[in-house]
Design brief:
By secondary structure, the chain is α/β, with parallel strands linked by helices. Helices cover about 40% and strands about 15% of the residues. The protein has 11 helices and 13 strands. The strands form 3 sheets. It has an 8-stranded parallel beta barrel, surrounded by 8 helices. A two-stranded antiparallel ribbon has the order 1-2. α5 runs parallel beside α6.
Amino acid sequence: MADLKTTYMGLELKNPIIAGASDLTANIKKIESIEAAGAGALVIKSLFEEQIQLEIYKFEEELHKNDELHAEMTSIFPRLEHAGPAEHLMWVRKAKDAVSIPIIASLNAVNKETWVEYAQRLSETGVDGLELNFYSIPTTNHMSAAEIEDSQIDILESVKSAVSIPVSVKLSHFYTNPLHFIARLDVAGADAIVIFNQLFQPEIDAFNEKQVFSMTLSDEKDHRLPLRFAGLLYGVTNSSICASSGIYTGADVIKMLLAGANCVQVVSTLYKHKIDYISTLLNEINQWMDDKGYASVDDFVGKLSRMKSNDPWAYKRAQYAKMLLKQNPLG
């Protein structure tokens, strides 16, 4: 059988399939099932700053709603502290103890102080790595792209100074030049880059005239964008590359590795086909490697990257022109 081992953010994984952060990685039984199905690692469901702040606000509101019930009462709960984030941290520790595969914590914050504080707290749970979810929602025109990027670089550098475990950065594709920003993240110490985050977008119910928020699975063709950037990044960054979005089959995993990714994160395919489908993905990769005569993943990673490709236009805009000049571009 082929050797599927790979290295990601300095961690040795038994294979390149990582279960990405989701509700599937927020339950001990499901986490155990993910390990049993053969995943190389998993990312715990994210801790969000909005969640932290909302829980603190609700707790404080409940804590003090009856403070003035009696003239001599200053507080009826004088020594209680908010325990919401502490409960999440305790659960992460239990998850780490429950399985032997690498566990990566996930953090999605806004303020620099929160990034650093909870990066430290998560690192103290014993997790093997930390994933920072960088996504700046442009709701005003008061901050430039350069200011957003500078702020995120500063956060990464501060987190790296505060923790001793490897740190990855999960990006959206909303950067003018992702390659330039990734190069800056590389210099700032990112151990890995995850491309790209599957973001939830607002929707409107036109008939009932209200906003709707629902989970949408990635499309099976969404893998093409991370594939492009994996191919462009191979050989030009020291950071590990993890591809994410639209990865449904063993063939999709193989494509990402051929382009230059070290590993992939899967979520939507696990919702669609259930957790046990990880074993199917691994079997498909093994069969392909056996058929091709590859003994290890390292034998073909990056084989079709821009750096190694025989077609210099494979990752260029000119590819559009080549397609349009064909007599039958759809064929």
